[in-house]
Write a structure and sequence with these properties.
Structural class: mainly alpha
Helix content: over 70%
Oligomer: single chain
Largest sheet: none
Order of helices and strands: HHHHHHHHHH
Number of helices: 10
Shape: globular
Radius of gyration: 19 Å
């Protein structure tokens, strides 16, 4: 079964008649989801491996966590502003409960991100064993919430978006997320996405970038991520 066939089946289950017209390609969001879920799954161990008092490593791990939390926060902001309203306007009443569930999950994730941010800062300032373990525990909670949320999005909401959004509206969601990422962090973010991402989807994600960036980022990004992964996770292929 192709991805388009699976999407049409999901739409039928949610009470929608799948359109005959081509669906919007939403695979770029799955690339982002995969990277974020992987990094948050690995994050508790990265914290726990840090010896008490190792300020240098704690600072490095905390900086990586800050990037992850910022990426997730901006990703959710773009969905809150540009995705949920369109789905509410254009989908059947059968889907409203799912949309409301996803929005409630965003609120829970925002609270978890806030707790992680507070603990991350305290641990970076004073990397003792107690703060380390508290942070690792909160990261485990955050990962569990994120896994549940992304499963719901990919199973139920991305198929709806593929049907009711236009190409331009969908691209605006990705562009909003990209605009919030500092330019200095873009090679690392792209390398993070490229680690497990579909090359054809990755190429489409940077199709509108300036020519120089479009040529260089796919070459530089994976190397930048490999260096970061070795530093944070102990392996270039975590």
């Amino acid at each position: 079964m192709t991805s388009a066939d699976m999407t049409r089946n999901h739409l039928t289950n949610l009470g929608h008649e799948p359109p005959a017209a081509p669906l919007v390609d939403v695979r770029d969001m799955i690339v982002v989801h995969t990277a974020l879920l992987r990094e948050f799954r690995l994050a508790p161990a990265a914290v726990s491996r840090t010896a008490p008092g190792d300020s240098r490593r704690a600072t490095a791990v905390a900086a990586h966590l800050r990037l992850l939390c910022d990426l997730l926060h901006h990703h959710h902001e773009s969905e809150d502003a540009l995705l949920w309203p369109k789905l509410r306007e254009r989908t059947s009443p059968n889907a409203l409960d799912v949309i409301e569930e996803a929005e409630a999950q965003h609120h829970a994730l925002d609270a978890a991100l806030s707790r992680v941010g507070t603990l991350r800062g305290a641990w970076a300032d004073d990397p003792d064993g107690v703060r380390r373990d508290q942070l690792a525990e909160q990261l485990e909670i955050l990962h569990a919430l994120l896994r549940e949320h992304l499963d719901l999005e990919e199973r139920a909401l991305l198929p709806l978006a593929a049907m009711v959004m236009t190409e331009g509206e969908w691209q605006a969601i990705g562009e909003a997320g990209v605009a919030a990422v500092p330019k200095s962090a873009m090679p690392l973010a792209f390398g993070m996405f490229a680690y497990e991402g579909d090359p054809t989807v990755l190429a489409e994600m940077i199709r509108t970038a300036p020519p120089l960036a479009r040529a260089l980022v796919p070459l530089i990004g994976p190397r930048v991520y490999a260096r970061r992964a070795r530093l944070i996770h102990g392996s270039a292929r975590p």
